[in-house]
Design brief:
334 residues, 9 helices
């Protein structure tokens, strides 16, 4: 990535690289721990591929930071993980975690590509996008082969094209409710699935957190994930649709410290940030008013949780300040 026209990075490019560095350094810690405990050889292969990608991304990020004369973020290091700690999550949790790294990577890098101007930066994010898709496909193939893939509900195929001709299509509070559209079902299912996985992670974190403050916050995240899952499941069941979730997303009873509290808080914050994005997309793609109201309410709950988590991170000096515009007022004071 050293070949460019000596044009400084834009704020979008700068923000994306700093965010990617923190996320990849965290992933290296988590995946290194998973690699120590995963038993299934096919799932282990997916973990190894994901870990190699994160390490490669970190190396490329450092190369860019040095080339631009930028300070390299602290991120997370070996000090934030104890890979020899007892097993905390089942192989299925690990597989779904890796699959979601691919999903999150595709979303993040596709956005990064659209806001990048420099050719070397676009080439980098294009390569990252391809590798994220490859990771997702590998993990999904393994999940399907082992019967662990959680399929969204199915509905009968339409027999003809129809157009909406009544405002009842938007209704959702009073009287007869129209059935959910396929898009609404997809959003509900994916949010149910993500909250189920996120709740399992938060439960595990609550057992290994070293401070009471972080333990309580992890428990709170787990409880909110369960509550949100029940909301999405209720919408599906009211439409006589199954709410498929796996009973194998299990957490052991281990309590030995695995990750630093700093990493736990960053990880939970990253999950919540992603959840807010997914809820926003779901809100935009769900015309039924009761769904829109539910997503808006749940986004407020997550937003309050994010703020409380941020306050904890600031209080413990766990949050690195991202590159920011200069304070002109302070500069003007001499």
């Amino acid at each position: 990535m050293s070949s460019h026209e000596h044009i400084k990075l834009t704020t979008s490019e700068l923000a994306t690289f700093y965010m990617a560095y923190s996320n990849d350094s965290m992933s290296i810690c988590v995946l290194s721990y998973f690699l120590e405990h995963v038993e299934d050889p096919d799932i282990k292969s997916c973990v190894e591929y994901a870990l190699d990608l994160s390490k490669m991304h970190i190396d490329l990020d450092r190369e860019l930071f040095r080339g631009e004369g930028l300070p390299i973020p602290m991120g997370f290091t070996d000090q934030d993980v104890y890979t020899k700690a007892p097993r905390l999550f089942s192989d299925e949790v690990i597989l779904h975690y890796v699959q979601n790294i691919g999903i999150m990577g595709m979303g993040a890098y596709s956005h990064a590509l659209t806001v990048s101007a420099r050719n070397d930066v676009r080439e980098h994010f294009t390569a990252c996008l391809r590798s994220s898709a490859e990771l997702f496909n590998r993990a999904t193939n393994v999940s399907i082969q082992k019967g662990l893939y959680i399929r969204p509900p199915q509905i009968p195929y339409p027999t003809q094209i129809e157009f909406v001709n009544k405002d009842h299509f938007l209704a959702g509070w009073i009287g007869d409710q129209r059935p959910l559209t396929s898009a609404e079902i997809s959003f509900l299912f994916m949010n149910l699935y993500r909250n189920t996985l996120g709740g399992a992670l938060a439960t595990g974190f609550s057992q290994i957190a070293q401070t009471k403050e972080v333990r309580k916050f992890s428990v709170r995240c787990s409880e909110i994930a369960k509550h949100h899952s029940s909301v999405f499941g209720k919408f599906l069941s009211e439409c006589n649709l199954p709410t498929p979730v796996s009973s194998n997303l299990t957490v052991t009873t281990a309590k030995d410290p695995v990750f630093s509290d700093k990493l736990i808080m960053f990880h939970l914050s990253a999950l919540m940030d992603a959840g807010m994005v997914f809820y926003g997309q779901s809100l935009a793609g769900s015309p039924r008013r009761d769904l829109g109201t539910a997503y808006s309410r749940l986004m407020i709950e997550v937003g309050e949780l994010v703020q409380d988590g941020t306050n904890i991170m600031i209080a413990h000096s766990w949050m690195e300040k991202p590159p920011s515009a200069p304070n002109r007022k302070d500069l003007a004071k001499g």
